[in-house]
Specification:
The protein is about 30% helix and about 25% strand. By secondary structure, the protein is of the alpha/beta class.
């Protein structure tokens, strides 16, 4: 990549040496000779490229337990920032956000990113949750077209560019936002490409992306490289909202699997680094010659990468890359903490609104993964996707983060009241829900995969038996499952509703065979609608999952 800088450097050395040689001759040094030009060039110190990367922030203003949160992420970035540092994000800054950001259409998340000093953000699938016009509003500013301006303020938009290289208007073929950005860093021109996964339409409401085309990730990079090199780019960094998972710790790379592996292999020799996302995993890998990282989600971690770049070739001479955990033991950024506090105060009245009543506590504890809270959630998913032909609903137990308590909380007039904030606490991740067609065999494989992993899914519309001591891969068999009270047929097609965690082929391999996906929005919205329709809601009998030795 780019030999011109080397030629210019060598010309300068020749001119300088000629002048010095002339001076030396007058002092009687006829044997003096110029040093090797290659040695002189090689002696030039490499350029330093310092990148701080994160992904899947999802409007996480407040810290979750002892990790993550905007103020602590900002504090960690500030502590590691230096001259020439570039701060980047690999998608899903917004969408699936907690109450204090989601209520305000993620304007708080953008305001915080401005304060943090984010330089470039690749788009992710959640950037399209409310359609392209809303993404453009987040970029350029202005009040929300339906809800108007946040009380007492105007919204200026992002001070950083969103990059969307593989997202085009179907009608015109033009990208909806800039595909890449170029930046001179320590004398080397660096190109940043931003992309979302090509399967974004499969995990987004169809109406939100109906006018868009999402191109293949590898083909998009290949198509851009000639243009970027012609513009002087010597080093290419990709901000890609697609990822994988591995079995090691937060800064390891133990058996990385997922779409990111094939993508990295296909781009080997063409890009220096891929900051990835989407899977909410943490990894720090080198695939071939490509550095591949992911920093979890919700500001829980930060990738700190220092690359030494050969000024002549643009090659990475050496790299020091680590994922670091962001904890509440760090020093929070006071300016960002003040922004968070202001939006928490604005959200409080909405958080306290009653949304339903219950007759008893909906517990999140139960045998074999089943619980009253889980049964209500899957009932809500099944009812909310009836129009898509849903027969079955699946929900991961790890996504149930709280129970709905019957005794009155402080400020509640009586027992059994469910406030918006309480419902939100049950499902705070705002995972999307969709309905797919799956064969009976693949449905069984999905149930077995989660049971084998020790994390059985909660269900509606079916019953199944887990064999707790059976070998891995045979905890649930076709004879153990009934759909609507009828024995499952492995060859029959079923309409299955699942949230985005269970729907992912990374967590549920048989979901790779799913077809005819129809999006249904966010899980919390389905739950609140169900609670309101059926109030007062009583705990259902836990009779859907049977556990045997």
């Amino acid at each position: 990549m780019g030999n011109q800088p080397a030629r210019v450097t060598r010309v300068a050395i020749v001119v300088l040496w000629a002048a010095l040689l002339g001076c030396g001759a007058s002092k009687g040094s006829p044997d003096a000779a110029p040093p090797s030009l290659d040695a002189a060039v090689d002696a030039a110190p490499p350029a330093t490229l310092h990148i701080l990367a994160f992904n899947d922030f999802h409007g996480a203003l407040d810290s979750a337990s002892a990790a993550g949160g905007a103020a602590y992420l900002a504090g960690e970035i500030k502590a590691r920032d230096s001259a020439g540092t570039v701060v980047v994000s690999a998608g899903d800054l917004v969408g699936g956000s907690p109450l204090d950001s989601g209520l305000f259409h993620d304007e708080p998340a953008i305001e915080i990113m401005n304060a943090i000093g984010l330089d470039y953000a690749g788009v992710g699938n959640h950037e399209f949750d409310e359609g392209t016009p809303e993404l453009l509003r987040l970029q350029h500013g202005g009040c929300h077209p339906v809800d108007g301006c946040t009380p007492g303020q105007t919204f200026a938009g992002a001070s950083f560019p969103f990059l969307a290289a593989n997202v085009r208007y179907t009608a015109t073929g033009a990208t909806i936002l800039p595909p890449y950005a170029l930046r001179d860093i320590d004398g080397v021109k660096v190109g940043f490409i931003g992309m979302t996964l090509r399967d974004t339409p499969a995990v987004t409401l169809p109406s939100a992306v109906a006018d868009l085309t999402f191109d293949d990730e590898v083909a998009t990079v290949h198509a851009l490289l000639p243009e970027m090199h012609a513009a002087g780019a010597q080093v290419i960094i990709v901000l890609l909202h697609q990822g994988g998972g591995q079995a090691g710790g937060f800064d390891d790379c133990a058996g990385l699997v997922g779409p990111i592996v094939d993508i990295a292999h296909a781009l080997d020799g063409e890009v220096a680094m891929i900051a990835s996302g989407h899977s909410h995993a943490m990894y720090n890998c080198t695939i071939g010659n490509v550095i591949v990282t992911s920093a979890g989600a919700h500001g829980q971690a930060l990738t700190d990468a220092t690359l030494q770049i050969d000024r002549a070739t643009g090659a990475v001479v050496s790299a020091n890359v680590h994922n670091v955990l962001v904890t509440t033991a760090a020093t929070p950024d006071p300016a960002v903490a003040a922004i968070v506090a202001s939006y928490d105060a604005l959200a409080e009245p909405i958080a306290n609104q009653p949304v339903a009543t219950i007759t008893a506590t909906l517990s999140s504890a139960g045998l074999g993964g089943e619980s009253a809270m889980g049964d209500v959630i899957t009932d809500a998913m099944l009812e909310g996707t009836a129009s898509a032909g849903a027969q079955v609903a699946l929900m991961n137990t790890g996504g149930i983060r709280a129970e709905l308590s019957y005794p009155a909380s402080a400020g509640e007039a009586s027992d059994g009241i469910v406030r918006y904030a309480e419902a939100f606490a049950v499902q705070p991740f705002s995972n999307t829900v969709s309905t797919v067609t799956l064969s009976g065999a693949d449905l069984v494989a999905a149930l077995d995969a989660w049971s084998t992993a020790g994390k059985p899914v909660v269900v509606a519309g079916l019953t199944y038996t887990q064999h707790a001591s059976a070998p891995a891969g045979s905890r649930v068999t076709a004879g153990d499952v009934a759909v609507g009270g009828v024995a499952l047929d492995p060859l029959k097609a079923y309409r299955v509703t699942a949230n985005s965690i269970v729907r992912s082929p990374i967590s549920t391999p048989s979901m790779a065979n799913a077809t005819n996906e129809v999006g249904a929005g966010v899980d919390l919205d389905l739950l609140i609608a169900y609670l309101g329709t059926h109030q007062p809601v009583a705990p259902p009998p836990q009779d859907r999952i049977t556990v045997v030795p």
